[in-house]
């Protein structure tokens, strides 16, 4: 072992110089505080490196647990970006009360065409309706057998907005407004399949949320368990630190940083997983979607989402460690 | 540091009465030995001073402050003023001698240059300046004990407590260790050493406190 150059003279001096300068209580200083944090940050990382197998396993389990909801999120994002572009001409069909006079119906028709969010209104009289029915065969016999025309006056309202997933709700609001007109018996927005699609997507979203919550809990448990073992394996050190006057916060800190590293590394590898996976499926997926819609580009994790993923996972790591440390440090008491 | 015990009693949760009606006064800068048979309550008395255990009756005053008035958060700060050599809190085997000795300084957030300087000063005091890079397992029993002492004094404590510091060392090493404590006492540190080695204690010619079944039976000079 190499011995440092002889410092005996100097150190003796320093002992004498401060002999009666006992500090009674350490005061708070920001630079000291940051230095401690910085040291702990690097030390806690070195500690992970010290137990490579256990650390790699924990990080990988976290990465897998996080890449599942992350991947589903990306999938959902792509489905949404595709379906957002599916639109159709929207039509709201108004069935007016059968006893309504033609003049009243026409007045309504004019009133509605003047409305800003309506492009046009098509007036279908009872006779036109009947002719339409007769043309579209099958009903011919039945219709002519009836004593009088049973059909109501119908207004086909064409809103300015085309209907797609994003405008669905405002069109539904328009439908409701039209249905509330006193002349209107029933109003129908012709967008059933879009409604269904919207339902499926919101189901998918909730599914991803629920799965995320479950997996976040799983990650908390994994981090908590690893930290618990780390605390346990450093029992002697914790005791000695308490003996020489370490505060609880000081003892807790390296473990919280350990949780931080687990979280950040787990989040990093989860993001990497998602990037690699989406790159891998992008070519076939784009070819497939191109059949229906040109210019489709698969979306993956963007920078913001990666940062968000890292932040969330770091937070989960620290939180998991915090729970575990608080529970287990308390059980390690000097005696 | 000045210590005063006033009719202090300690009854463990098991019902064992380790100390009863213990009173004594240790002046600032004084050195004393604490003796008594095994189970007499020596370790318990030192744990009370470190607030590792709390007394069940009586008062302990440290520099005039009643320890019962200290909050949980104040305990670490109290402990930083006291250096201890306790049997069952030995060195960390996976840390170098330097790191072991540095621990009390790291814990109180001293700056790195100060730490290096003080650690070397403490190691120098116990004659182990050339062993700072060693790991405890590579040292002899006597050397390990001295590292423990260096750790106890590195923070320049006002009170030094040693519980059986010469436990299983041979007489020559034991005398060396005791001389070390005497040296620290000479620079103004209050020192209390628990030992059941009556012959050694007698040779040191200091005040001797004797416990028997948890009671202070003798508080006099030279054993
Ligand atoms: N944690 C404990 N719980 C219960 N009894 C204890 C505990 N520690 C010590 N004792 C008892 O208190 C008495 C004094 O012990 P101790 O202070 O260790 O004596 P000494 O250090 O003089 O040998 C003994 O009878 C011992 O069994
Ligand atoms: Mg004992």
| Low-confidence regions of chain B | none
Beta content of chain B comes to 25-35%
Q: How does the helix and strand content of chain B classify structurally?
A: alpha/beta
Q: What's the shape of chain A?
A: elongated
User: How many individual domains of chain B?
Assistant: 2
- End-to-end span of chain A in angstroms? 36 Å
Secondary-structure content class of chain A: alpha+beta
| CATH homolog superfamily of the largest domain in chain B | P-loop containing nucleotide triphosphate hydrolases
- The percent of residues in helical segments of chain B reads 25-40%
Return the average pLDDT of chain B rounded to an integer: 91
Distance linking N and C termini of chain B: 23 Å
Order of helices and strands of chain A: HHHEHEHHEHEHHHH
Proportion of beta-strand residues of chain A? 5-15%
CATH class value of the largest domain in chain B: Alpha Beta
Following the backbone from N to C, one meets helices and strands of chain B in this order, namely EEEHEEHEHHHEHEHEE
Say what oligomer this is: heterodimer
Q: Which molecules are bound besides the chains?
A: adenosine-5'-diphosphate, magnesium ion
GO cellular component, one term (chain A): cell division site
Function (chain A): Part of the ABC transporter FtsEX involved in cellular division.
Keywords (chain A): Cell cycle, Cell division, Cell inner membrane, Cell membrane, Membrane, Transmembrane, Transmembrane helix
InterPro entries (chain A): ABC3_permease_C, FtsX, FtsX_ECD, FtsX_proteobact-type
